Amino acid sequence: MTMQSGNNFYGGSGHDNITANAANNIILGGQGNDTIYALAGNDEVNGNDGNDIIYGSSGADSLKGDAGHDILYGGDGNDVLEGGLGQDTLYGNSGNDTLRGGDGNDLIDSGEGTDLLSGGAGDDTLIGGSGNNSFNGAEGDDSMLGASGNDSFDGGAGNDHINSGAGNDHILGGLGNDTILAGDGDDVAHGGYGNDSMVGGTGNDSLKGDDGHDMLMGNDGNDSLEAGLGNDTIYGGTGNDTMRGSTGDDLEYGGTGDDTLCGGAGNDTLYGEAGNNFFNAFDGDDSMVGADGNDTFESGTGNDFVFAGSGNDSIVGLTGNDTMDGGTGQDTYSFYGDFGQDTVLLNSTSNVDVATFTSSADHLWLSHVGDDLVLSNIGTSNQVTFSNWFSLGEQHVIITDTNGSTLSFNAVDQLVTAMAGFTTPSAGMTSLPSSYSSLDSIITSSWVASSN
């Protein structure tokens, strides 16, 4: 039974079929499974209890399902649809609509227009149209699908699945272990709290893991990928990507392209793969591995390992006790300032590399230890060990000082033997004492001045 008072309609307790008029109506379905047609006008409809079907029309309508498993159609106009309790289905159709699922596992399809979709409590499915839409999953394990617009996503609490579609989108996973597919466009995504999986698309994306043990994959484009807290794994994919570790023990793969791979505070592993890559270890005991390109490596504050691979690579030893293997290319090692106690691994397949020190020749002390040549910077604890120098029998490293002078390979044995007759200079000694003056001529003759 339906009652009408002016432009107000009341359904009562039965299963009602209510068709309003073209005015601005207030419609209450009452108890029961009702079907309500709002028609033209800016209508306010509440289905009340029961499994209701509510149709808006061309006006700016406010449709509420209330309790029950309801279906709401917004129609044309800028509508507000609210599912209420139960497992509801909301269709915005055209117009700039606001759609709220409420409690229950709801399906929300915004249709055309610039829409606001909110899932509420429950495991909801939110589908956007071609406009610039805003998604909020709220509580529950939600699925959100964008389209061609520049959309904004907030997963909220729960383990959410977000596919942003085309467009330049902004994505926040929120609480929970989320899966984020950025799609086409230049997207910005933050995983939030939880162990998240984030995959970029064809654009130049910015992905950040935030808290948790996250997986980030840039795919196509020149992407910025940042680990955040936790032990994260980063894949650059194609393009010239920038990868940054953070406080955890992170794993980074550059992929194709000229990439920048940076460690963080943890013990990180960085793989450059194809391209001319730049590596920076930062803090922690890190491993950096190059491939075919001409790569640049900078060690950090920890005890780092570098394998440069093939290519003509540049390796810079900073603080920490580092181990370096240039691989098969013609590589350059540089030792600056307080570089620590480093080791350069030599073998029979090594090409002739260059090792440059920022100390002058009269501040470098040579020692023969086993099969290794050890160069110490007098007055400091800094030293470089060239492994297998003497057992290889041929030159694999050209050593230069800060003035560009080169240590003659044939003079190494003579200089080592001469220095072996003296005590290694103690820490804090800034120059050789007068009692070592007999070494002056040998040092001078062993180093060939630069012709420049």
Question: Could you explain how this protein is built, in words?
Answer:
The protein is mostly beta strands. Among the domains are: 1-149, no CATH class; 294-452, no CATH class. The strands form 3 sheets. The chain has a 22-stranded mixed beta sheet, with no helix packed on it. The protein has a 22-stranded mixed beta sheet. A two-stranded antiparallel ribbon has the order 45-46. Strand 42 (372-377) and strand 43 form a beta hairpin. The N and C termini lie far apart (104 Å). InterPro entries: Hemolysin-typ_Ca-bd_CS, Hemolysn_Ca-bd, RTX_toxin/Mannuronan_C5-epim, Serralysin-like_metalloprot_C. Keywords: Secreted. Its main location: secreted.
Largest sheet: 22 strands, mixed
- Bulk shape: rod-shaped
Q: Classify the helix fraction into a percent range.
A: under 10%
Helix run count: 3
Report how far the terminal alpha carbons are from each other. 104 Å
Keywords:
single chain, 452 residues, mainly beta, 22-stranded mixed β-sheet, calcium ion binding, RTX_toxin/Mannuronan_C5-epim
Q: Which helices and strands, and how do they pair?
A:
Elements (H helix, E strand, L loop, with lengths): L2 E3 L2 E3 L6 E3 L6 E3 L6 E3 L6 E3 L6 E3 L6 E3 L6 E3 L6 E3 L6 E3 L6 E3 L6 E3 L6 E3 L6 E3 L6 E3 L6 E3 L6 E3 L6 E3 L6 E3 L6 E3 L6 E3 L6 E3 L6 E3 L6 E3 L6 E3 L6 E3 L6 E3 L6 E3 L6 E3 L6 E3 L6 E3 L6 E3 L6 E3 L6 E3 L6 E4 L5 E3 L6 E4 L5 E4 L8 E5 L6 E6 L2 E6 L5 E4 L2 H4 L4 E4 L5 E2 L4 H9 L19 H7 E2 L4
Parallel strand pairs: 2-4, 3-5, 4-6, 5-7, 6-8, 7-9, 8-10, 9-11, 10-12, 11-13, 12-14, 13-15, 14-16, 15-17, 16-18, 17-19, 18-20, 19-21, 20-22, 21-23, 22-24, 23-25, 24-26, 25-27, 26-28, 27-29, 28-30, 29-31, 30-32, 31-33, 32-34, 33-35, 34-36, 35-37, 36-38, 37-39, 38-40, 39-43, 40-44
Antiparallel strand pairs: 1-2, 41-42, 42-43, 45-46
